[in-house]
Amino acid sequence: GDSVTQMEGPVTLSEEAFLTINCTYTATGYPSLFWYVQYPGEGLQLLLKATKADDKGSNKGFEATYRKETTSFHLEKGSVQVSDSAVYFCALLPLGNTGKLIFGQGTTLQVKP
Amino acid sequence: DGGITQSPKYLFRKEGQNVTLSCEQNLNHDAMYWYRQDPGQGLRLIYYSQIVNDFQKGDIAEGYSVSREKKESFPLTVTSAQKNPTAFYLCASSDRGGLNEKLFFGSGTQLSVL
Questions:
Q1: How high does pLDDT run on average in chain B?
Q2: Which of B5, B46, B113, B114 is most deeply packed, by most CB within 10 A?
């Protein structure tokens, strides 16, 4: 079945460091791909998305490119801040599905001043 | 402000007790969802509803029940049959019966067993 695999955390970085959180997926066809972020004690918020191959989603300095050839959707940011500390979830929406997102296990990011 | 409200924020369940988690949205969304989040794991879908008076089981529906009598409300009952209920529960909604993939989440309810 369809699935999402993320790199294990926690990821600990110093402020202004470069961030990469790996995400790979298994799905038939061309699913839509998402990154959600969860700040402590809160629900999830959509960070960015891409709906077709080679699309790049971007928001708040974060970027991710839909790579069909490697079935990946890695999250990157050039310079992280302490306020970026959160749990990041990669997710996919299978082709033709109605709202049933499939989530990865989440990756905790800790940014130290 | 439009959004999703979950209550209570913290809930404790005694052995053999049923408890109900509230989820209300004023976004006029057709679809609503319940997810369970365990530490170090992703979100798992419990139940979802794409329209009033209709709902479907997700991946881990056993021990849970829901109702969708009103568009804005989707309460989740954790029954005594759920033997491991301690988790963080998240409610979400989306527009156009789920065809719009952007989910809006509530702030969650932490359920613990006494």
A1: 90
A2: B46
- Backbone CA torsion sign across B5, B27, B76, B87: negative
- The nearest alpha carbon in chain A to B37 belongs to A105
Nearest CA in chain B to A7: B40
Q: Which of B90, B85, B87 is nearest to B103 (CA)?
A: B90
Contact A44 B99 (CB under 8 A): no
| A89 touches A44 (CB < 8 A) | yes
On whether the CB atoms of residues A73 and A33 are closer than 8 A, the answer is: yes
Interface test with B, best of A23, A45, A55, A103 (most B CBs within 10 A): A103
Instruction: Give residue-wise pLDDT tens across range A30-70.
Output: 899 999 999 988 889 999 999 889 999 999 999 999 999 99
DSSP assignment string, A54-92: T-EEEETTEEEE-BTTTTB--EEESS--GGG-EEEEEEE
Contact (CB<8Å) A43/B99: no
Whether B99 has a pLDDT exceeding 60, the answer reads: no
Predicted pLDDT of residue A99: 63
Residue from the list A32, A41, A42 with its beta carbon closest to the beta carbon of B101: A32
Residue B43 has pLDDT above 80, yes or no: yes
CB-CB: which of A4, A93, A100 is closest to B48?
Answer: A100
